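B., you asked whether I could sanity-check this one before it goes into the benchmark set. Here's the sequence:
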Amino acid sequence: MPSSPTSQLIAAVSDRLTRTERRIAQAVLDEPTLLAFGTVSDLAARVATSRPSIVRFATKLGFEGYTGLQNHVRRGLSDQLSRPIDRIRSEDGGTSRERTALLAGIDSVFEAVDHGHFKSFSKQIVGARRVWVVTGESSRAGGYALQSGLAMIRPGVHLVRGHNVARDLADAGSGDVAVLFDFFRYRRSTLTAAEALATIGTTLLAITDGPLSPLAALTEHWCALTVPAVGPFDSSVPAVAAAELLVAQVSRDLKKDARDRIDRTEALWDTTGTFCP
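And here's what the prediction gave me:
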């Protein structure tokens, strides 16, 4: 499948395009979202041509069909909209839009709850020998929240840091669970750690952004969150909310074990004078 930007693919074959194909090319360049999110019929209607003409145009650019071209354009749009360098130069936005985006992100967390994902994840965590939390950059706040919360209610919870993956995971194995947080522009270190854990038989639980995520391809245990942009950067709010709700579910499932561990921790805090009076 071609990897160059769509504009470059069109330029490379421009001398071989028919008059109809030039109209299609112009529409694709002017309105990439129409191609990215519309059907072949939508684009054909926009250009006043036939569906076979659209398919032939996609083939001429080097794709097997319309779907290949569409996925290519989608990835290009996603990449552009996911880079802080592009977002910070955008005039779009404002607190009203950001509020709407954040609420959509929170809604996606509760959709994961409603679909039973966190109950399923909790069952795996409760029965695990050890729990490893692996995150990307924008999801790290969620990883910290999960590790901190789980460590209060059960033993053997570890946060894996990207620069120390090999050392941190030296004790991992079958019988363990790894909770993976990462979203689009996935960190190579997160994927590398996930692949290594899968190889040694660790159960993977992925909190990511959809079925095309490389993390979702590694495990049947995954859920999708919507991660909006707030200003130039991805929001940490959905990941943190997911972590807190997952900790709450694990606490309910552990019952007395969780209460006893919290009691012991509180007693040690009092003994060591952890908090100011």
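One thing to flag: The chain has 14 helices and seven strands. Otherwise nothing jumped out at me.
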